[in-house]
Amino acid sequence: MEKINLKNFNYKELENWVKERGWQKFRAKQIAKWLYNKKVSSYDQMTDLSKDIRNYLKENTEFDSLELVSFEKSNLDGSIKFLWRAKDGNTIESVFIPEREHNTICVSTQVGCAVGCKFCYTTKDGLIRNLETAEIIDQYLLVQRFVGNENRISNVVFMGMGEPLANYDNVKKAVQIMTDKNMLDLSNRKITISSSGILAQINRMYEDPEFPQVRLAVSLNAADQKTREYIMPISKTNTLEDLMKTLNSLPFKTGYRIMLEYVLIKGVNDSEKDAHNLARLIGKNKKRYKVNLIPFNPFEETDFQRPDDKSVEKFQKILWDYNISAFIRWSKGRDISAACGQLRKKELNNFIKIKT
Ligand code: SF4
Fold it and tell me: Which sites bind [4Fe-4S] cluster (predicted)?
C-alpha cells in the first residue's frame, strides 16, 4: 500500500488524521512542531512522541517526498539551484536566493507546464503532472535543511516550473501550511504566487476565503494583445484587456502591490514604443503595480535573444518618467529564480556543478 505523506495535510487535516488514530489532539501540534519548526529529518528525532506513535508513523507514512540529485552554486551571488527527484522518477528544480536582508526560495509547482510561453524552457515537453503539496513543502524544508537554520528562508516565490494556479488545490494547501502558526509560520506578505494570467483562477483565489492572502505576480511580457498572444498563447483566451480589467479591480492594499513581470526579448517587446505602451496600459493605476524587468536568458532551441543592457535601462527609464515603479532583475545567479520556466536549462554560466 502506498504510504501517505503528512506534509500533504493542512493543520485541520492533520488534527483529524491524528484523532482518527485515537490519539489525543495535541499530538498534531507536536508532529507539526517537529516537521515545520524543528525541521527534523526523521521520526526518531520526534522525542516527545511515544515509541508506539513513532513506529506507527514510520510504518505508515513516508518522510521526505524528494531526493536531492544535484545542486549548482552561483559564483556571483551565492544562489543555489537544486535538482530533486520525486518518487516517480520525475525531476524538479528549486532555487535558494540569498539577499542582503533575507533569504528567498523559488519553488516549482508542476513537472513541466501546459501554458506554452514561447520564452520558457519548462513548457517544451508540456505538462507531465501537478506536484503534490508535500513535494512543494519539501522543496522549502529540504533547502532549509541544506543551507542550515542560520540561513533562515523567510520568503517564498512560486515562480519555478509550472503555472501555480493550474495546480490550485495543492498550491493552496502549501500556502496554508506555509502561513499556519502551528506549521511553517511564514508571513503572508513574504509569499508571492506568480501566474501567467489565468483569469478564472486569479478570481477564484481572491474569492476563496480559505486561500491565505499572499502577493500576486503576473507574467505580462507585452503591452499589446498581438505581441502578448505571440509570446504567450494563453493570451488568446485570457486577453490582455480582460487581464488588466481583472487586475485593476482586485481588492488592493498598498502593501500588496501586484508585480507585473516583463521578460525583455530583443526585437519582440523591448522597444521604446513598447515601454510607452506599457506605461499607458498601467495608466492611472501606478500605485497598484510594480514592474519587474527581466532581460531574457537565451537557452538552446530558441531564436529569442537578450537585449543589450543599455536598451533594458532605457526601457526602465521610460517607465520611471511616468512615475512607475520598475526594477531590473539582471542576469546573474539570482535571475534564475525569476525566469519562470528557464530553471530547467541544463548548463548555467557561472555555476559550479556538484553531483551528490
Ligand atoms: S513561463 Fe511559467 S507559465 Fe509560462 S510556460 Fe513557463 S512555467 Fe509555464
Answer: 113, 117, 120
